[in-house]
Amino acid sequence: MEVILAQSAGFCFGVTKAVEIVYDKIEEGKKLYTYGPIIHNESVVDDLQNKGVQIINTPEEIDDITEGTIVIRSHGVSKEVQQIIENKGLTCVDATCPFVKRIHHIVEKESMEGRRIVIIGNAGHPEVEGIRGWSVTEAIVIESGDEIENLTISKDEKLCIVSQTTFNYKKFKDLVEIFQKKGYDVSVVNTICNATEERQTEAKEIAAKVDAMIVIGGTHSSNSRKLYEICAKECENTIFIQTLDNLHLNFPKEVRCVGITAGASTPNNIIEEVQNYVRINF
Question: Is it true that domain 13-96 has CATH number 3.90.1150.200?
């Protein structure tokens, strides 16, 4: 069995930085919390919890903490949550991905200058929720063309369009084009990170030339799900798994070449396990 592994598979820069920060802080032996799971990968989060790292999911939970360090996850948080942590007098370590942090600055600046913020991304995703929290006015989250059709905002209102860092690049361009054709006054900032664009492009190219495709990622990983959607359009035999335990291959006998890619929150050891298993057993 020939196996083609995407070179861009696995931890991106922002995730690597965030995970390293938490593991380094564990060595200090103090009470340690993360605001939300540090990344969207269950195996990493479970390992950190086994080492004593606790997860905070709401601002209200911060009130019950009297000491320790809170690490802001790679997805970032709203300005309000960050201020709550700092005002509480707790040690705050910001592990927000630099690409996400850049969006926070753009959104704050543009909204203060009077533009309505439009975020192209998944409503409810922690990164998007954090971005919304840096706009001084109510931001709009858009994921589909239908949502744009149903907008009731005035054409006289100036807009600033940004994107979730892991959004599908082609879909982002298509949605921006709809805004422009409708005559909105838009300022567009492509905030999809380069690693995401490269990962999606490479995954599409591999999926188009293999007989089967395996996408590895966490259940709640937005970028992994988008990789799956991209690959599934190119290769009918595309499957999505979290770990080797989820790998139950029922590919047709004519499958001779398998491609593998993985989301930005997938550890290298999981990728290697899947790659080796496929090469040895098929």
Answer: no
H-run or E-run covering 186: strand 185-188
> Is 127 one of the catalytic residues?
yes
Answer yes or no: are the C-beta atoms of 85 and 95 closer than 8 Å. no
| Distance of alpha carbon 112 from the chain centroid | 26
> Can you state the angle between helices 42-50 and 13-26, rounded to 10 degrees?
10
CA distance 212 to 205: 13
In the beta sheet, which residues pair with residue 162? Answer: 119
| Catalytic entry in 110, 127, 129, 143 | 127
In this structure, CATH architecture of domain 2-10+195-281: 3-Layer(aba) Sandwich (3.40)
Tens place of pLDDT for every residue, the chain, 282 residues?
799 999 999 988 889 999 999 999 999 988 999 999 998 888 899 999 999 999 999 999 998 898 899 999 999 999 999 999 989 888 999 999 999 999 999 999 999 999 999 999 999 899 999 999 999 999 999 999 999 998 988 888 999 999 999 898 899 999 999 999 999 999 999 999 988 889 999 999 999 999 999 999 988 888 899 999 999 999 999 999 999 988 877 767 778 899 999 999 899 999 999 999 998 877
- Structural class in CATH, domain 99-188: alpha beta
